[in-house]
Design brief:
The chain has five helices and five strands; from the N terminus they run H-E-E-H-E-H-E-H-E-H. The protein is of the alpha/beta class and 114 residues long. It has a domain of 77 residues: 3-Layer(aba) Sandwich (Rossmann fold).
Length: 114
């Protein structure tokens, strides 16, 4: 089951990591979303859903994420390259993506683990 379905996300957009024999193989499947596509997605989604850009959050780790990270209300560098960490408002170096829940205002008591 796709994580976005299990987590009740109604949409996700990301590059797809390729898997063989149950393991990540280190490559990204087509189509590859570049920086322009990521920024356009942020703009399109915030506009179509009537969400002020100041209320958006974008997460990335590489230079192709810079556009969306700097355009989002909260740009987060996740274990990112130095140029991205410097440009982002927040940088997560140690920890996992659970930190994003805290950044959105959730507290540990609200987390559901399965």
């Amino acid at each position: 089951m796709i994580a976005s379905t299990r987590l009740n996300f109604d949409l996700h957009q990301a590059n797809h990591l390729e898997i063989a024999a149950g393991r990540l193989v280190g490559t990204v499947g087509e189509p590859i979303l570049g920086g322009e596509a990521k920024l356009a997605a942020l703009q399109r989604l915030s506009e179509s859903r009537g969400i002020a850009r100041a209320l958006t959050l974008a997460v990335g780790d590489g230079a192709n994420d810079l556009g969306m990270i700097t355009a989002a209300g909260l740009g987060v560098a996740f274990r990112a390259r130095p140029v991205v960490a410097e440009a982002a408002a927040v940088s997560i170096v140690h920890g996992d993506l659970t930190a994003l829940l805290y950044l959105q205002g959730y507290c540990a008591e609200e987390f559901v683990f399965s």
